[in-house]
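Hi U.,

Before I forget, here's the chain from the pilot set. I'm dumping it here mostly so it's searchable later in email.
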Amino acid sequence: MLDIKFILENIEQVKRSCEAREKGADVNELIEKYNLQKKLKQQIDELRAKRNSFTKKVDELRKSGKNTEYIIRESKENSSLIKEIEEKFEKMQKEYQMSLYKMPNILHSDVPISNVDRVDWESSIKKPEFNFKSKTNWELLVDLDIADFKRGIKAAGDRGWVLKGNGARLSRAITNFGLDFWREKGYSELIPPYFVNEENLYITGHYPGGEKEVYRTEDGKVFVGTAEISVLAIFKGDEFNKKELPKKFVAYTPCFRREAGNHADDKGLYRTHQFDKVELTHITTKESEEKEFNQIFNGLKELYKKLGIPHRIITHRANDMPNKAIIEKDIEFWLAGEERWGEGGSVGMTGNFQARRGGIKYVGDGKQEFAHTIYATGCVANRILIAILNNFQRKDGSVKIPKVLVPYMGGIDVIGKK
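Structure:
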């Protein structure tokens, strides 16, 4: 969430950011609501002051034995007016607050303002070339008998899936490898709640706007679509000493998303309603945020290199970025069997946008400030599993397991047909 003071002092910059994102946020409307609720608050304060003077006047008249009827009548009229304006103020304050929540973050100067994302870097890992007809991830999953989509749909409906045997084991191996990899990079591991109170989605910027993407319970809980939501909810309202920062967390959660209205990539395991994800969350300072943001990509490059999967980094264009991000980049992997790039995960820098919403602060250098936050996908088991199937498939229909995952597979280095 942007500070209204910042918006008022940088109106043109905020407008340019809104226009580039093409999300329909209206700065003029926000300022109009801000001024109106401010005016109503002023009226309420003046009427309350007048009410106090009426009370004082009534006491004075009663002590002197004079008639108080007209003062009491004016006082009642004043009280009715206060109630009427308070109701208007409460309604306008809610509208203003929601408009402020809808206001997107300021864009980083490196964000492309165009109709395409920008490719920043591509790994030197050679893309495999096959001397046989390659298969898609869903064909391999079924042929190798390591997934069952019919039974998954039977149990869960659209995009349901079941991983079994070495498919289930490979998924777990990827998650455990990811957790160990980031823990060795200095991240503190958490197992956070898999569902949170719904208001916590306002902290991360998933609300307003993402209400159709979540699965809710009857008692106002939401199953998380990323551990970032849980982690920032854990620390809302906390105050850190600047010397404690950065706090860098790695957390595994099963994730749940409706993927409302998105029917692309709905075959196989690429885009499903349930998936296993290792997420990174940084709580840091303004001075360190950009340095940490860039360091995450060094880790991601190393992780994918260890897996032997061709990969690249792209920067999202302004109109393809979430409101919370100043800048967001993706790590993508090559899907040789399907001859396309796939999204491995996103890394976003948010400034103090999320911390301001969550009241997460730090104290240092004689002052208190809102913290800065970064979110990053450490690895998604379903996506990396797809990349392995695509890039390590062999002519006999089997799939070679990347060397780094073999210990997590109990020594199994090939998944073949039974």
